[in-house]
Specification:
Amidase signature (AS) enzymes, globular, 8 helices, alpha/beta, single chain
Length: 242
């Protein structure tokens, strides 16, 4: 599926009228992975801000996000991408690549993918297509946007994703717990935007995510501009936060 061309330059959407939108709120992981309270609170405070701007917000989300078969399907496709990238690197270098050329977690993903059959990959692609259709049905049911935390955890300390030769897939497991609200839309191809509207007690920024229907980047930019005007964040920076 090819996204339709924008009706006008995206710059023209910044500050354009938004109207009153119907927005779904999801502040928890439908599959039960814990979500940090700061992430949940940031989504809920943004919901209140959106209501104050004239939008209707209600707790609702695509039922497909509760599909427990999605994470392994996404993982299989991700691993396949790593294998393709490894082959492309070998072509670029003009020689076989080794584990010294590629980050350990990506090497391990590629190795696991190389053991899967073409039939396994075809099944994964077919399941992904069905998932995309199931996700998009929610927007066709009358919602304009979905509001979620961007991530399920507040920012990790530097070094949390360090490769461990004794456990090469550790970074992937950590990441899978962190991106509970974003991977689905990597799969569906829908536009999403992350806005730094939340803060922890220590001043760390906490993102909230808005997701639109396929091809509706224009709507995301209008709402993002409206939110930034209502709750500016440009004065917040690592220096300002100390």
């Amino acid at each position: 599926m090819i996204a339709p061309p924008p009706a006008r330059p995206y710059l023209h959407e910044v500050g354009a009228p938004v109207g009153s939108l119907r927005i779904g709120l999801l502040d928890h992981d439908p599959l039960g992975v814990p979500v940090d309270v700061e992430c949940r609170d940031s989504a809920r405070s943004t919901a209140k801000l959106l209501e104050s701007l004239g939008h209707r917000v209600e707790e609702s989300f695509p039922a497909a996000m509760a599909d427990a078969s999605f994470p392994p399907r996404f993982g299989a496709m991700w691993a396949t991408n790593q294998a393709v990238s490894r082959d492309a690197l070998a072509t670029m270098l003009g020689r076989p690549v080794t584990s010294d050329d590629i980050e350990l977690v990506n090497w391990e993903q590629a190795e696991r993918s190389s053991k899967a059959s073409a039939f396994d990959y075809a099944k994964s692609m077919n399941a992904a297509a069905a998932f995309r259709r199931a996700i998009s049905e929610w927007w066709h049911g009358g919602f304009d946007l979905l509001l979620t935390p961007t991530l399920s955890k507040i920012p990790f300390p530097v070094g949390s994703f360090t490769n461990d030769p004794s456990d090469p897939l550790k970074p992937s497991r950590l990441a899978s717990e962190w991106v509970r609200f974003t991977a689905q839309f990597n799969m569906s191809g829908q536009p999403a935007i992350s806005l730094p509207l939340g803060r922890t007690a220590s001043g760390l920024p906490v993102g909230v995510q808005l997701v639109a229907a396929y091809g509706r980047e224009d709507l995301l930019l209008r709402v993002a501009a409206q939110l930034e005007a209502a709750a500016p964040w440009k004065s917040f920076s690592p220096t300002a936060l100390g």
